[in-house]
Protein: NAD-dependent protein deacylase
Amino acid sequence: MAAARIVVLTGAGLSAESGLGTFRGKGGLWEEYDLEEVATPEGFARNPTKVHGFYNMRRGWLQQAAPNAAHFALARLEQEHGGEVLTVTQNIDALHEAAGCRNLIHMHGELARALCAACGASHPWTEDLSLGTDCPACGESGTMRPDVVWFGEMPRQMERIYEALGVCDLFVSIGTSGTVYPAAGFVAEAHRAGAHTVELNLDPSEGASLFAETHYGAATDIVPAYVDALLQGKARR
Ligand code: APR
Structure:
């Protein structure tokens, strides 16, 4: 029998125990910051300095953060499963790749990259974008922005994601509240394709009832345990 094709969707809860805050719920980033101001194209047009400040702050947090046991478990799944494992993350940190994950889509972009609004080139970036550096590709000035997807913008590589969801045998959603589309709709897409669907989260997400199997607890506990069970053939795939 061919090895199961697996799509894993991850959200902020996966990186919470690496010290990166989640967005919703008590202490979430959207409690302190107005997302209309810091995470929309309109907010950026109104006040680029404020938006750059928000992402500079988060870039600083990233420098302190290291992958946790859940990131390493998912990298191990990719390496040891023997069939395709595609990880689609909503996270803009770089912790999946730091743990060794390679077949990865950053659907909401990457904090450690900058995008030129004039020519569309994306570059690795660690500096303060408000300094107004010229685009290294086209030379335009004042056109660089964080290479992240803001509310109202199209997430990245959607065609490839839907293609994988349409043929997957197993869909696993980890550490996401299931409130932001299109990612929140992936479980229904996988279900339509006949996949077994699993939610791993601290507590039931908005869409918990859409999953066939659920496990609740901290990602660093439940993800390694679930990956072990999968690799040992003890979990449904
Ligand atoms: N282990 C597992 N799950 C956790 C943990 C943990 N240690 N800590 C928190 N969680 C869960 C929460 O219970 C919540 O359901 O992670 C989820 C985080 O939800 P959100 O903060 O809404 O993050 P996410 O779903 O990734 O947000 C989606 O919204 O703001 C936008 O672009 C941003 O990519 C983000 C998108």
Q: What stands out?
A: Residues 11-13, 16-17, 22-24, 28, 90, 108, 175-177, 179-180, 201-203, 205, 218-219 surround adenosine-5-diphosphoribose (CB under 6 Å). Residues 21-64+111-148 form a domain with the SIR2/SIRT2 'Small Domain' fold (CATH 3.30.1600.10). The chain has ten helices and nine strands. The longest helix spans residues 48-64.
